[in-house]
From TrEMBL:
InterPro entries in UniProt: DinB/YfiT-like, Maleyloyr_isom, MDMPI_metal-binding
Transmembrane segments: none
MF (Gene Ontology): isomerase activity; metal ion binding
Protein name (record): Maleylpyruvate isomerase family mycothiol-dependent enzyme
Source domain of life: Bacteria
Keyword Signal: no
Sequence ranges assigned to domain Mycothiol-dependent maleylpyruvate isomerase metal-binding in this UniProt record: 26-177
Organism listed in the record: Arthrobacter crusticola
SUPFAM superfamilies: DinB/YfiT-like putative metalloenzymes
Pfam families registered for this protein in UniProt: MDMPI_N (PF11716)
Keywords assigned by UniProt, alphabetized: Isomerase, Pyruvate
C-alpha cells in the first residue's frame, strides 16, 4: 500500500542513471528467466495482451531484441529485414516490421529451449549495454518518430540501452505472467523504481495536472499541480499497462507512453 508514504512531486523523482539502470537490468533479466522456467508446455501458446502474440511470441521477441543489443550485425539484419516487412504486414511503424522479422527468423526456436536461449542472450546484451561509451550513448541516432500518438523524434542510444530495453523486458514479463496466471511478485526496490521512472518520463509528455495514488508494492503517490480533485487511485502495474496501450485509459491516463 502507499498511504503512509507522502506524495512525491513528479519533478522531484530521481531519474534512473546508467549504473542503477544496469543493476535493474540484471535483476529484471533474472526475473524474466525465472518466469520462463516456470512455464508448462501448455502455457506457450496462450494469448497475451499483445495483439496476435502468444506467450512464445513475446518470449522470442524479447530474446531477439537482446541478441540485437549484443551484436550490431544482428541488429542490422533485423532492421533491414524489418523495413521490408513493415509495408507487407500493414505496420504503422518501422518497429512493427522489426518485430515481425524477429519472429520469422526464429520459427524453429522450440519452447523448451527458450529459457536457456534467453539466459545466454540476456548476458551478452547486458555486457554490451554496460560497455556502451557515454559519448556514443549521447548520440541521437534512434529515429523513434511518432508512437501511439506521442512524437519521440530522434532519441539518443542511451534512451534504449540504459532503461528502455529493461522496461520492455519488464512489461513483457507482466504480459506473460498475466497470460499464464503466474505471480509477478513486484517489489518496491525493483519494480517500484521502474514505475516511478516511467511516471517521471510520462509527465514530460503532457502538461495536465495529476494526483496519482498508485497502489501495490510497486506503488507510490505522485502529484503535479494538484487541482484539488480526488486522487486517481489505481494499481501501479495496471497504470503502466494502460500508459503502454494495454487496457482502457481514462482521464489523465489517456496520455500514452509506449513501452
Amino acid at each position: 500500500m502507499t498511504e503512509d508514504r507522502p506524495p512525491t512531486p513528479v519533478a522531484e523523482i530521481a531519474r534512473i542513471g546508467h549504473h542503477e539502470a544496469m543493476r535493474l537490468a540484471a535483476e529484471e533479466n533474472q526475473r524474466f528467466h525465472s518466469l520462463l522456467q516456470q512455464l508448462s508446455a501448455g502455457d506457450w501458446n496462450r494469448g497475451t495482451d499483445c495483439a496476435r502474440w502468444t506467450v512464445r511470441d513475446v518470449a522470442v521477441h524479447v530474446i531477439a531484441t537482446a541478441e540485437a543489443q549484443a551484436s550490431p550485425r544482428e541488429f542490422l539484419r533485423q532492421a533491414v529485414r524489418g523495413r521490408r516487412l513493415t509495408a507487407q504486414i500493414g505496420g504503422q511503424h518501422w518497429v512493427d516490421g522489426l518485430n515481425e522479422a524477429q519472429l520469422q527468423a526464429r520459427r524453429d526456436l522450440h519452447a523448451p529451449d527458450i529459457p536457456a536461449r534467453w539466459a545466454s542472450a540476456a548476458d551478452a546484451a547486458l555486457r554490451s549495454r554496460r560497455r556502451l561509451p557515454g559519448a556514443i550513448g549521447r548520440l541521437r541516432l534512434l529515429p523513434l518518430g511518432s508512437m501511439a500518438g506521442v512524437d519521440f523524434g530522434w532519441q539518443p542510444l542511451s534512451y534504449l540501452f540504459d532503461i528502455g530495453f529493461t522496461r520492455d523486458v519488464w512489461m513483457h514479463r507482466i504480459d506473460i505472467a498475466r497470460a499464464t496466471d503466474r505471480p509477478l511478485n513486484p517489489t518496491r526496490e525493483h519494480d517500484g523504481r521502474i514505475v516511478e521512472d516511467i511516471i517521471a518520463e510520462w509527465a514530460t509528455l503532457h502538461a495536465d495536472p495529476f494526483h496519482l495514488r498508485l497502489t501495490g508494492p510497486a506503488g507510490g503517490t505522485f502529484v503535479r499541480a494538484d487541482d484539488g480533485s480526488a486522487p486517481l487511485e489505481i494499481d501501479a502495474i495496471d497504470c503502466c499497462r494502460i500508459l503502454s496501450g494495454r487496457g482502457t485509459p481514462a482521464g489523465v491516463l489517456e496520455h500514452p507512453l509506449p513501452l
